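R.M. (postdoc): so does anyone remember the format we settled on? I'll just put the structure tokens first.
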């Protein structure tokens, strides 16, 4: 559907400008007049402007969403009208994509759309979870509380991401520094010592000869090796983007020690918290689990949630359906069953989320404790081998001189 830019005035003479999707300029004018505006111009939006808007419509981070929801919740609780609140947030944000989205949101709401419907037209900016939650908040008249809950939800997600990044930063830095040291030893230090030993006619031990041969081989074929690694990475990336490849990758990841448990705990945390928030907002459980199925990052867990949706539609329970998948710890379906029996499923889900938040923290620490010594031992062994290959000939030379 084409997009049109319009200029209109209200009964007090205040000027409004914006864009709207419509079948024709006449349809735009009719819609604005029915809402009580005096239309002064309607122009089709050029393709160039549309492309520019698409370029800045990037996905927002969890932190950006948390800040947006928190600001909007605060303004709505203070009694600020929704269009004015959106305008205030738009003026305060430093994200061009969000500012443009909020501009279009204000126009859409002013021309009769609900805020959830307007958000739903911009899926690149506003996640489906946020749209559905806002829709439920509008229906129940608790939109300010809904945005407050969403801000807490996205803030927890952001903090969880930061924990994972922080835990993996140190091992990554150690690995990069160690690889650079190994490359310098191979490329600079070792060749100088080899030349010195050759000039002195020293007999090199087997370890030194193997190291030199490896260095020479790398020096000759490094470009071929690099291209082969890049080609393999591209091929693997393309494969895991297919349905079969993604399923293989996800299955393999879940089977890894420590990492598999961490990924499962992360999925349980997201599932429990998201469903708890949706149920508390009045979203039916079938719709909530269907949405969570789309949000899950692991294919096998997506299939488990999809199976649960079908079971619930047939009159079954969520706890029984998840228990049959064997993907989740026994405690999860057991606690879900208690929640279903007592009618406090949203509270039990929140308890599960809080418990697995702690599990995620412990598993991240365990992963860090596992990675750090493995990286240090492996690279320390490589460096020790290179140093030994340099020192052994020197000791032999000193022995010959002493003899």
């Amino acid at each position: 559907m084409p997009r049109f830019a319009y200029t209109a005035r209200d009964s007090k003479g205040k000027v409004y400008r914006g864009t709207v999707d419509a079948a024709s300029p006449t349809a735009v004018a009719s819609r604005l007049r029915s809402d009580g505006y005096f239309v002064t111009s309607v122009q089709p939006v050029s393709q160039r402007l549309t492309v520019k808007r698409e370029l800045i419509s990037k996905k927002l981070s969890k932190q950006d969403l948390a800040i947006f929801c928190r600001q909007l919740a605060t303004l709505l609780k203070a009694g600020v009208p929704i269009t004015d609140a959106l305008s205030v947030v738009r003026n305060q944000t430093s994200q061009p994509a969000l500012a443009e989205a909020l501009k279009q949101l204000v126009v859409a709401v002013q021309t009769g759309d609900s805020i959830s419907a307007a958000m739903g037209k911009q899926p690149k900016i506003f996640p489906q979870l946020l749209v559905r939650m806002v829709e439920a908040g509008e229906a129940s008249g608790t939109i300010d509380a809904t945005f407050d809950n969403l801000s807490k939800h996205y803030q927890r997600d952001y903090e969880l991401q930061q924990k994972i990044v922080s835990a993996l930063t140190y091992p990554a830095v150690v690995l990069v520094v160690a690889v650079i040291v190994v490359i310098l030893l191979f490329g600079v230090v070792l060749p100088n010592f080899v030349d010195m030993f050759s000039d002195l006619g020293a007999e090199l031990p087997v370890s030194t000869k193997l190291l030199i041969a490896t260095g020479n081989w790398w020096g000759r074929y490094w470009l071929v090796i690099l291209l082969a690694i890049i080609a393999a990475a591209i091929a693997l990336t393309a494969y895991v983007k297919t349905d079969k490849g993604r399923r293989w990758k996800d299955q393999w990841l879940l089977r890894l020690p420590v990492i598999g448990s961490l990924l499962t705990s992360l999925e349980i945390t997201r599932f429990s918290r998201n469903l708890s928030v949706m149920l508390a907002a009045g979203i039916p459980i079938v719709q909530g689990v269907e949405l969570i199925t789309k949000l899950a990052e692991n294919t096998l867990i997506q299939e488990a949630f999809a199976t649960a949706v079908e079971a619930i539609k047939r009159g079954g329970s969520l706890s029984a359906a998840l228990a049959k998948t064997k993907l989740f710890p026994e405690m999860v379906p057991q606690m879900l069953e208690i929640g279903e029996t007592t009618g406090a499923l949203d509270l039990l889900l929140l308890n599960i989320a809080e418990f697995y938040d702690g599990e995620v923290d412990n598993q991240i620490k365990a992963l860090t404790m596992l990675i750090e010594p493995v990286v240090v031992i492996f690279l320390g062994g490589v460096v020790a081998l290179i140093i030994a290959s340099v020192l052994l000939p020197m000791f032999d030379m000193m022995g010959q001189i002493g003899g």
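R.M.: ...and that's the designed sequence above, right after the tokens. Also worth knowing: The first helix runs from residue 25 to 34. The chain has 16 helices and three strands.
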